[in-house]
């Protein structure tokens, strides 16, 4: 049930009006990667993307976008078995950086890119994407705090193994 709820949150965060890249999907990848098996976490993150992209439209760098979220799931699954605020923040920052670096490289690398296929063009693509990176960081850290904070509150309030225990 939580898997469906988390996927719906990811979908809504993309479909509702928001500043560019300020969605819950990056945080979902981190949270789900820390709480579920890799397969279930990928279903949440990639499922939210596929369903919302079916509405918003598919694009030429989906492989980079989805791949970035898959890497975030793997990072969280590997490094958040033992959790602390520092570890969660570190994985969230690393996930945001991976998304920024991979997706903007892909935008530069695709055929017909608005950036020349030179080192200067690659640097320009990263510079032009800084406002989106800022929004990703704000969204990723905000939603990560909400997900992990809500989980901790629910777990404290309802310690039953049937509530929010993957």
Explain this structure to me?
By secondary structure, the chain is mostly helical. It has one domain (2-157). Helix content is 75%, strand content 0%. The protein is built from seven helices and no strands. Helix 2 (25-35) packs parallel to helix 4 (62-79) and helix 3 runs antiparallel to helix 4. The longest helix has 28 residues, at 130-157.
Give the averaged pLDDT, no decimals.
93
Helix coverage percent:
over 70%
Residue runs with pLDDT of under 50 for 5 or more positions: none
Radius of gyration: 16 Å
Overall domain count: 1
Oligomer: single chain
How would you describe the shape?
A: globular
Q: How many extended strands? A: 0
* Total helical segments: 7
N-to-C span: 10 Å
Class from helix and strand fractions: mainly alpha
* Biggest sheet architecture: none
Q: Spell the H/E element sequence.
A: HHHHHHH
- Fraction in beta strands: under 5%
Features:
mainly alpha; 166 residues; globular
Summarize the structure in short:
The chain has 166 residues and is mostly helical. The protein has helices at residues 2-15, 25-35, 38-56, 62-79, 85-109, 119-128, 130-157.
List the helices and strands and how they pair.
Layout: H1 2-15, H2 25-35, H3 38-56, H4 62-79, H5 85-109, H6 119-128, H7 130-157
Helix pairs in contact: 1-3, 2-3, 2-4, 2-7, 3-4, 4-5, 5-6, 5-7
